[in-house]
Design goal:
InterPro entries: Znf_C2H2_sf, Znf_C2H2_type. The chain is 50% helix and 13% strand. Strand 7 and strand 8 form a beta hairpin. It contains twelve helices and 20 strands. The chain has a two-stranded antiparallel sheet. By secondary structure, the protein is an alpha+beta fold.
């Protein structure tokens, strides 16, 4: 009996200890909850951020967690599995599959299946450019355009030509560059059939046919089909000659003229006659030479003027030193 009594005594002690231990854990847990609520009240007082408490799990979360819970995706596209967290988004997404374009521009009649695309389009008419470059101040209507523009400042070129290694900041520029290697000219003039690799080049070419000259000189009124033509023309008025020969120091207003001049020094003659093989450093010189093969008389206008002096008796070239009169410029040069 003593053994049984001792067992009962031990059992009773264990049970009491267990109960006391349970009471202690609950008390500690309750104290933690009270302290947590106090901390949240202090946090709300300092930051204004209110917390939320779940009565079932006794887990607390801030307003941010509650908002994240509210934005949980609960709409899923059965075709592609794309999920949405707002009722408006799945409607716009479904219109992609149905082709329904419910947003129509009242100014130009263009339609869109998403309101976001419609809002972007409206900036074309309003001229709104809300995205501004922090470095140069250039503004853009779309954020994507600003992102691409920023690569000009950072020097980031993501798109590289697989053939020559040249890189570009925009994929479209790389696509145009590839046409140099492929020889593709997808833009054709409807009047003469000449083809171009870029639509901008075709647009400039069309001015030859329609007579459009949008770039005019403010000093003399002469107009040009290209802006660079006006820029070159302005050097006539300003007298500016920014292109200088590194060998003789002679200056030119156009880079093309310097290129032609350099052939004097390097002996380059890129224009060759296909009939006799004679080469020239100017294309105009080749054209004059070709007339000797065709039998044209007095091809250069200057030669005809010299010849006419024979009939009219003009003595244009008077040598004052030798008192010798000549009707031919070549005769004067030989005296």
């Amino acid at each position: 009996m003593a053994f049984i009594k001792e067992e009962s005594e031990e059992k009773r002690i264990v049970e009491v200890f267990s109960v006391k231990q349970k009471d202690t854990e609950e008390q500690i847990k309750m104290e933690k909850v009270v302290l947590k609520e106090k901390e949240e009240e202090d946090q709300y007082f300092i930051t204004g951020e209110k917390s939320f408490c779940c009565s079932q799990t006794e887990k607390t979360s801030t307003r941010k967690r509650a908002q994240e819970k509210e934005t949980t995706s609960y709409f899923t596209c059965l075709r592609f599995g794309k999920s949405f967290n707002q009722q408006g988004n799945p409607k716009d997404h479904i219109s992609i599959h149905t082709g329904n374009k419910t947003f129509t521009c009242e100014q130009c009649g263009k339609s869109f299946n998403q309101k976001g695309n419609y809002n972007k389009h409206m900036r074309v008419h309003t001229g709104e450019k809300p995205y501004t470059c922090p470095q140069c101040g250039h503004s853009f209507a779309q954020k994507a355009h600003l992102t691409v523009h920023m690569r000009l400042h950072t020097g980031e070129n993501l798109y590289t030509c697989p053939q020559c290694g040249k890189s570009y900041a925009q994929q479209g520029n790389l696509k145009v560059h590839i046409r140099i290697h492929t020889g593709e000219d997808p833009y054709t003039c409807p009047q003469c059939g000449k083809s171009f690799s870029q639509h901008a080049y075709l647009k400039i070419h069309m001015r030859i046919h329609n007579g459009e000259r949008p770039f005019s000189c403010q000093l003399c009124g002469k107009s040009f089909t290209r802006k660079i033509g006006l820029k070159r023309h302005m050097t006539i008025h300003t007298g500016e000659k920014p292109y200088t020969c590194p060998q003789c120091g002679k200056s030119f207003c156009q880079h093309g003229n310097l290129t032609v001049h350099m052939r004097i020094h390097n002996g380059e003659s890129p224009f060759t006659c296909q009939q006799c093989g004679q080469s020239f450093n100017h294309k105009v010189s080749l054209n004059r030479h070709l007339r000797t093969h065709t039998g044209e008389n007095f091809a250069p206008h200057g030669n005809l003027k010299v010849h006419m002096r024979i009939h009219i008796g003009g003595n244009s070239f008077n040598c004052q030193q030798w008192k010798n009169v000549s009707t031919e410029k070549e005769t004067l040069s030989n005296t």
